[in-house]
Amino acid sequence: MTEEKLILPAHYELERELLEQLSSRPGHQRCVVGHGELLLVLHEVPQAGVPERDALFFWKRHDGRWVQPGGPGLDEVGALLDRYEAAIDANEEILEKTESAADVFKILRQAGPLARSTRNFVQALEQALIQEPDERDIRSFRDKAKELERASELLYIDSRETLNYWQAESAEEHAKSSERLGNILFKLNLVTGFFLPLVALGSLFGMNVNLPNFIKELFWLIFFGGLIVGGLLLWYVSRERK
């Protein structure tokens, strides 16, 4: 079984000390220190739901010159930071306009990896500055990366708080609806309880049986008696509820 090797740009000729510190995978963002050479490993902008990271390698040779995948220099580090900034700004714009919890959840899924990647981005650049403290370009990139780190963390916090607020607002509306429904059912039960004695008496005297004459003569008394009993029941239940 052949051992897999890390794929580097064809024009990179790293020294043995650097190659020995690398594996078949790019690994996390960092600055690998060799014997007079550096290899800066950075990640492309992460995508939501994609665990793999595309790595970019920046090599500092023995003669002090930086080499990037597209040729000499460090311009591609700035372009990479611009892509991070564009991704953060795009999500912030969506967050300001959206009224959908699904959109906020999508932002959260990307804001988390963005925050972690920018944090590790800063750490990798600071490791490079420890080795080369006079590198003005690296220092400038580090400062911008710190700004993006803060912006990505704020994006994550804002989207999370927005989602939490909407959840609390929805729960509050649900509680209010439940309370209104409970009040309506309570009123219906009061009306039902008010007429319950009258309905019971009507059912009793409405049976096909021969009733004594004195009961027929007391019809209105029984009727109003049922209303009074219902009213007393209504008063009692209302008083208990309060």
Structure, briefly:
By secondary structure, the chain is of the alpha+beta class. Helices cover 64% and strands 9% of the residues. The protein folds into 2 domains: 16-172, no CATH class; 177-241, no CATH class.
> How large is the radius of gyration?
38 Å
In helices, the fraction of residues equals 55-70%
Structural class: alpha+beta
* Elements, N to C (H/E): HEEEEEHHHHH
Number of helices: 6
- Number of domain modules: 2
Uncertain segments of ≥5 residues (pLDDT<50)? none
Annotation, overall tally of beta strands: 5
Question: Averaging pLDDT over every residue, what do you get?
Answer: 82
Shape: rod-shaped
As laid out across the biggest beta sheet, the strand order is: 1-2-3-4-5
Account of the 3D structure:
Helices cover about 65% and strands about 10% of the residues. The chain is α+β, with helices and mostly antiparallel strands and about 240 residues long. The protein has two domains: about 15-170, no CATH class; about 175-240, no CATH class. The chain has a five-stranded antiparallel beta sheet with strand order 1-2-3-4-5, with helices on one face. It is rod-shaped and about 120 Å long. The model has no long low-confidence stretch (mean pLDDT about 80).
Question: What keyword list fits this structure?
Answer:
alpha+beta, single chain, 242 residues, 5-stranded antiparallel beta sheet
